[in-house]
Design goal:
Blueprint lengths: L4 E2 L20 H14 L4 E3 L9 E5 L11 H7 L3 E23 L2 E19 L5 E7 H14 L10 H6 L1 H8 L9 E2 L7
Parallel strand pairs: 1-7
Antiparallel strand pairs: 2-3, 3-4, 4-5, 5-6
Length: 195
C-alpha cells in the first residue's frame, strides 16, 4: 500500500525513532509499504518517520544511481541491486574526507542543496531477520545511509546547510508546510489550511 509521505514541518520528522522489536506489529507489511511508497515517489531511500512512524527503520534501493554514467564501472556495479532494510541502525564510525553531493528529500520536495558528508560509514544494524550485523559502506551508498539515518535521529538534510542557504529556502519550506507544493506522489502536510 502506498502511504502518504510526511512533509517538512511535521513534528514526527524531528522525533528520535524508537527501537524496533521482532514483535513490532505488522513489521513486514510496514516494510513492504515503505518500499512501495519509495518506488512510487522515485526515491532511493525512505525512513519510517517520513511515513509518520517514529521508529528506527529505513529502506534503501540504490539501483537508480547505477545508471549514472559519470560513475566508475565498479561503483555502478556496487549500486546496481543494492536493496536493503535497516532496523535499529547505529553509526559506529564515520571516516574519510568530507565530500559534497546535491541532496534532496521526499519530505522536502523541490529543494536540493549541496551537503557535505564523510565518504565511509561503519554501521551496526539488523535486517528483517533481526540478526545483528556490522558493515562498512562507502561512496553513494554511505551517503544514502547517512541521509536516512539522520531521519531516524530527527535530523533533516536542510539542518546541514549554511545559514545563508537556509534563509534562501525559507519561503519554499513554508510553502511545503502549508501544502503549497506539487509533486507526483501522495503527501501529508502539517500546517495545510482546512486540515
Amino acid at each position: 500500500m502506498i502511504l502518504p509521505i510526511v512533509g517538512y514541518g511535521d513534528p514526527v520528522l524531528r522525533a528520535v525513532g524508537a527501537e524496533v522489536t521482532a514483535e513490532y506489529p505488522n513489521l513486514k507489511e510496514t516494510i513492504a509499504n515503505m518500499y512501495e511508497t519509495m518506488y512510487n515517489a522515485y526515491g532511493v531511500g525512505l525512513a519510517a518517520p517520513q511515513v509518520g512512524i517514529a521508529i528506527r527503520l529505513f529502506v534503501i534501493d540504490a539501483t537508480p544511481f547505477s545508471d549514472d554514467e559519470d560513475l566508475a564501472a565498479e561503483q555502478q556495479k556496487q549500486l546496481k541491486g543494492f536493496k536493503r532494510t535497516f532496523i535499529n541502525a547505529k553509526i559506529i564510525k564515520e571516516e574519510g574526507d568530507d565530500w559534497s553531493f546535491n541532496e534532496g528529500c521526499l519530505s522536502i520536495p523541490d529543494v536540493r542543496e549541496d551537503v557535505y558528508r564523510k565518504e565511509r560509514v561503519t554501521l551496526e544494524y539488523c535486517e528483517e531477520d533481526f540478526v545483528m550485523k556490522t558493515e562498512v559502506f562507502d561512496g553513494l551508498i554511505a551517503r544514502v545511509i547517512q541521509h536516512e539515518y539522520d531521519h531516524i535521529e530527527g535530523v533533516l538534510f536542510t539542518d546541514k546547510i549554511s545559514s545563508l542557504k537556509k534563509r534562501l529556502i525559507k519561503g519554499k519550506l513554508k510553502n511545503i508546510m502549508e501544502g503549497k507544493t506539487f509533486q507526483d506522489y501522495r503527501m501529508r502536510f502539517f500546517a495545510k489550511k482546512g486540515r
